[in-house]
Design goal:
The chain is an alpha+beta fold. It has 3 helices and 5 strands. A 5-stranded antiparallel beta sheet has the order 4-3-2-1-5. A hairpin with a 6-residue loop joins strand 2 and strand 3. It is globular and about 40 Å long.
């Protein structure tokens, strides 16, 4: 198991209490969003308007509201977003992202990408 379910439940609840949350897309995600929606503002800034947990394969997923989007829904893993350190739960979000990324890399390095135990 890649995620601690108690910590995930706590973090998802905390994030939902403070929606919408300002976030910055990673450069890779910003390029993908721009490719999908060329009319979307070129800024990597967005708002997280929804949060859910999709289990180990996806982790915590965030619904994004991007400026000038044509109502396209972008739902991405929280690991592809950066949050201002001054926001509520920012420290816990960063810890979750770091832990999840580390566990995924470890699983991939042993050639067992879906066995997270």
């Amino acid at each position: 198991m890649i995620d601690n379910l108690e910590q995930v439940e706590w973090l998802v609840t905390k994030m939902r209490q403070h929606l919408p949350l300002a976030a910055t897309m990673t450069p890779q995600l910003a390029r993908i969003v721009h490719d999908e929606e060329p009319d979307t503002a070129s800024s990597a800034q967005c708002l997280v308007t929804g949060v859910d947990y999709s289990g180990d394969p996806g982790g915590i997923m965030c619904r994004l509201d991007c400026k000038n989007s044509n109502n396209s829904a972008f739902v991405v893993s929280i690991t592809h977003l950066m949050f201002d350190r001054r926001q509520p739960a920012a420290r816990e979000i960063a810890a979750y992202q770091k832990h999840r990324t580390k566990r995924i890399r470890r699983a991939a390095s042993i050639g067992d990408a879906w066995n997270f135990a």
